[in-house]
Amino acid sequence: MPINPEAVGAVGEESEISWTSKDSLLYALGVGAGASDPTGFELEFTTENSRGIHQRALPTQVVVLGSGGMPDYGDFNLAALLHGDQHIELHQELPAAGSARAQSRVAAIYDKIKAALVVLETNVRSHDGEPMWTSRSGLFISGEGGWGGDRGPSSAWNQPEREPDHVTGYDTRTDQALLYRLNGDRNPLHSDPSFSAMAGFETPILHGLCTFGVTGRALLHTLCGSDPARFSSMGGRFKAPVLPGQRLDVCMWVEGDTTLFQTRVGDRVVFDAGVFTTR
Predict the structure, then answer these.
(1) How many domains does the chain have?
(2) CATH code of the domain containing 11
(3) Is 140 in contact with 86 (CB distance < 8 Å)?
């Protein structure tokens, strides 16, 4: 079997990652910052030389900053891979420019019968050894399950039986995917109409991590007073594709320092089982 369940715990080589002020500006624009925000066009995230404003980075940018050397967990058809879920935890505010050391490991491999779920975790630390952030991705690989392994934990997330405490929405641009892809994900599914048609979509779809970033902006501005230092953790499950130009509404149910959330396009849930914490 191509997926190797014995790879759990395997660790990749630690490597240096770096990012610039320009990278942070491009990421912010890629997830829609400055286009429709009523709090001042997000100049601290989209400019580096506005008078009286110090550039800061959006916390969700950590998902595009690199993962170090990836440990080997098997050989499989990349077309069978689906990004199932994403979680990040910020141990300190992400600077607008910097460098760090990243190391990834195979945190778990679960047998979903018709698919394997591979959980990859990346830990990033400063050159002084201080933790900066942890990122965890769940990758569904269809056709790779059925070896009799652990099915994995079931989700305990339930939508509260009340109206959301907050709903914050942003319109995405019709060319949002073309802008976001400049952060590194050049998959033609998000840019080439002929390729997306072969995958069953009438037009190229938005990157899941772009939806994640737009959702993170809504959580940041609504629950953290737009202060990235207060953004602690965010995670959830990708549920349905988004087309560039569609409006994303983030529904939030606040329970102390923890907020449950969903991202919707109309009545359709596109990012589900969301959990957000503030600092």
Answers:
(1) 2
(2) 3.10.129.10
(3) no
d(CA 131, CA 25): 24
Mean model confidence pLDDT for the chain: 94
Element at 26 (helix H, strand E): helix 21-30
Split at pLDDT 50, 70, 90, the class of 73 is: very high
Candidates 23, 87, 190, 272; catalytic one: 190
% of the chain residues with pLDDT over 70: 98
Instruction: Give the DSSP letter of residue 125.
Output: E
In 151-234, alpha helices (H) = 176-180, 193-198, 208-223
Residue 157, in any domain of the structure: no
Q: How far is CA 230 from the centre of its chain?
A: 18
182 lies in a domain? yes
Specify whether the CB–CB gap between 224 and 216 falls below 8 A: no
Share of residues in the chain with pLDDT > 90 (%): 85
CB 34 within 8 A of CB 42: yes
Instruction: Answer yes or no: do 206 and 83 share one domain.
Output: no
User: Residue 252: beta bridge partners?
Assistant: 166, 261
* Domain co-membership, 174 together with 266: yes
123's CB contacts (< 8 A; 6+ apart) are 102, 103, 104, 105, 131, 134
Same domain (yes/no): 137, 37: yes
Rounded average pLDDT over 242-251: 98
128 is catalytic: no
Residues 6+ apart with CB under 8 A from 132: 90, 91, 92, 94, 100, 124, 125, 126
Q: Which among 185, 207, 249, 272 is annotated as catalytic?
A: 185
Q: Is 190 a catalytic residue?
A: yes
Predicted local distance difference test score (pLDDT) of residue 36: 59
